[in-house]
């Protein structure tokens, strides 16, 4: 999965490295400055066609713009800083991103908590239930089967 926030940060870095303003970059790509701004803020990502034009304009590769070779750096104090929430949650649920769930659980929205707890309940995600229990609501404890360690 592609992290739209990281891609946006990378586009901004490469544009600035090329010494181009948003307006200049947008003109080169035949798009509006607002469209470029949405990419740079991670609200959207470029289409494949636009990605190829970006690579040409910024003299780089698709892998670099999409951050495909970069490690995911996570700040335990705020796991979402610099990343799309959807990206981080998907990585946690898939097991590709190892985090200390009890210590970051408060950072999750109710729907994100439910996604994580479903994986725990189904046995696809390991967590220390004793540590997690104090961070769960009554309904979340019931969802996991009621009696936790």
Which architecture of the largest domain does the CATH hierarchy give at level 2? Orthogonal Bundle
Q: Classify the fold: give the CATH topology of the largest domain.
A: 434 Repressor (Amino-terminal Domain)
CATH superfamily of the largest domain: lambda repressor-like DNA-binding domains
Give the overall shape.
Answer: elongated
Strand content: under 5%
First and last CA, distance: 34 Å
Protein described:
This protein is mostly helical and 149 residues long. It folds into two domains: 4-65, 434 Repressor (Amino-terminal Domain) (Orthogonal Bundle); 85-143, no CATH class. It has helices at 4-17, 22-29, 33-40, 48-58, 62-65, 85-94, 101-104, 110-121, 129-133, 138-143. The chain is elongated, with a radius of gyration of 19 Å. The model has no long low-confidence stretch (mean pLDDT 92).
């Amino acid at each position: 999965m592609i992290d739209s926030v990281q891609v946006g940060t990378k586009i901004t870095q490469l544009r600035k490295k090329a010494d181009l303003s948003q307006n200049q970059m947008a003109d080169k790509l035949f798009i509006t400055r607002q469209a470029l701004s949405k990419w740079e803020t991670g609200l959207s990502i470029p289409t494949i066609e636009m990605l190829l034009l970006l690579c040409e304009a910024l003299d780089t590769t698709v892998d670099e713009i999409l951050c495909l070779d970069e490690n995911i750096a996570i700040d335990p104090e705020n796991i979402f800083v610099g990343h799309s929430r959807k990206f981080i949650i998907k990585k946690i649920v898939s097991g590709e991103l190892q985090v200390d769930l009890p210590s970051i659980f408060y950072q999750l929205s109710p729907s994100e908590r439910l996604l994580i707890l479903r994986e725990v309940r189904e046995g696809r995600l390991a967590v220390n239930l004793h540590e997690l229990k104090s961070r769960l609501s009554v309904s979340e404890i019931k969802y996991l089967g009621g009696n936790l360690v």
